[in-house]
Design brief:
With 168 residues, the chain is of the alpha/beta class. Helices cover 21% and strands 27% of the residues. It has one domain: 2,3-Dihydroxybiphenyl 1,2-Dioxygenase, domain 1. The chain contains three helices and eight strands, in the order αβαββββαβββ. Strands 1-4-3-2 form a four-stranded mixed beta sheet, with helices on one face.
Amino acid sequence: MKISLSLILLGTTLASTSVHAQQATEAKSDAATLGLNHVGFAVSNLDASVSFFVDTLGWKPAGGQLDYPAKFVMNDEMFVTLWQVIDTVDFVAFDRKNNVGLHHMAITVRDLEALEELHRKFVARDDVTVEFAPEFLGEGPTTHMMIREPSGLRLEFIVPASRIKSKD
């Protein structure tokens, strides 16, 4: 099974950067490295984070490592490992402006209708924070939203312009 992530936007989310990153993933490269194999996150609430990916996003459980503890989740394109932090009370919370590391992970969404449905699901959960609802990235038509899942991971959900049908 090919595990890949079509787009990770790190730092600024300018429309031109997004388009450039998307084109770069579609171009053939001479680089020795291929696509992203998986992403591993340390989480404060393993069960709630697994529930978010499985129950809200529709991903599938893919095993785990009980002695760590860790659980794995996947969809047809991505594989994510979720690792429970040792101290679930006094952990260092994510701070995108002051900590070096992952700013957010961007996940491609099938279409605008699916993005709107995800937004409704996120709003319905008490443990998910919506940073912003679906909106254009730059001048559009690429559309995205940003949330924090139950452990505070910052996730972007994005419908690239190529997946948006014209309303003509």
